[in-house]
């Protein structure tokens, strides 16, 4: 139970004022009274009210005390009781005793009256079963009469028994007020409308919850796709970096290999030239010895020439040969030097060409790698787009299934309520017809007021009056005939004559009563036939009305279902258009990126070829300037020639 705290006192007072209708000043006074009754405790117990002197002589003290602890007075639909209450519950119960204000509408006044009536009904419904039994009614009457002081206990019990019998003759064991029944019926209608509102709010909450769930799922899906794209981009960057490092290492190795090859060929050329020089020197030495020996032989054969002259001529010949050999050796060395320099230049040109070829191979590898990665990226984007489309379709189908299920539940509830309404209308009509048949007169005893006589009642009264008038006339005729017969007949025959006249009168009255009964029966038969025809017409009219209402409900439900299906088709078409447009943009983006990649490839290859062509052209121009001529067809010594 809620306790009343002083910290948020003003705010709590305003809330209680809106809930109970008491003013702030009245709430403060009642709060002081609550503290006084509960002995400054936060809760109020039954003993606190049972010991209250003001209720000591009240005949319905127990009902008043029980009303403060009855859950039905706190909230609608609750049952049972509690052992203690807080100030808020105390104030709610006290609000039932509050007089209504003057400036309220008639509907509000009627609602207050019904609420107070429900409170009084709950007060006397001690067993909490929704009805006031005869025993409960008898107990209330006994308590009220026995506490008055002017009546004894036995007298009070007798009056209570008589009142109970009177009520029993009216209500057949139970007393339920008409206002309570009307209030219950209105409550049922309000509960049904509240049920519709609750169902709509619940359906709306379910749709919102599902939409939020699907939105979270889509956000998670997009985040996962974004992570995949980022991972793909990171992998692409890492692979390109790795390829660049690998190509740099390979290029460095290739440069070193070309330098090594160049040195090897240069060494090979030097070795070959050294061999040629050695062979040339040996040949010169042989020629020198041959010439020297031949010269000596000629001089030895010439005996006339003096020895000094021979020596001088031999010395001149040696000098000439040595100068000639030195010139030839210098010429050979110069030729070898030119060949070596030209070979080195040609080697540099060949290394430059190989370096260019290696650069072309590397840039082709890099461009192919970029193309492959771009194709993988495009494949990932297409796969992601397809997965997004599948997820969107699944989510739309899930949302459509929930909507159709909610529509089905709503239609089922509407159909159940309509069937319940139809059954209730038919039961009410059946009870009405049964009541009309029970109220249809069965004998001559007619209770009616002159101002409210129906045609049947007037006809029955007319037949009854005619019967009574006829009976009076026959009685007069019987008396006149009896007097006349008694006057003209001897006294000894009077007894037999009176008996005969009495039998004749009885017979005529019986015939007259039979005629009266026949007239009443004929009238009742015609009235019953007319009543049955009217009731049958009412049944048919009600049946047609209920059938029309059922057809209208069915048409409305079919229209609602068709609208839901049309909405789903519209959403599906909209989704397909959105997916097609997104796919078209994606394909356009793929084409643009492929075109940009191809353009980049073409430009890079073009720039590379132009740079390499400029480098080779500059190298050839420098070679021509140095006097090496064209080196394109220069042949290098093979490795087997070493």
Automatic annotation (TrEMBL):
Membrane topology: Peripheral membrane protein
Recorded GO MF terms: ATP binding; calcium ion binding; protein serine/threonine kinase activity
PROSITE patterns referenced in this protein's UniProt entry, alphabetically: EF_HAND_1 (PS00018), EF_HAND_2 (PS50222)
Entry annotated with the keyword Cell membrane: yes
InterPro entries: EF-hand-dom_pair, EF_Hand_1_Ca_BS, EF_hand_dom, TAO_STE20_kinase
Compositional bias ranges of the Basic and acidic residues kind: 298-321
Every EF-hand domain range: 112-147
The protein, known as: non-specific serine/threonine protein kinase
Organism encoding this protein: Bagarius yarrelli (Goonch)
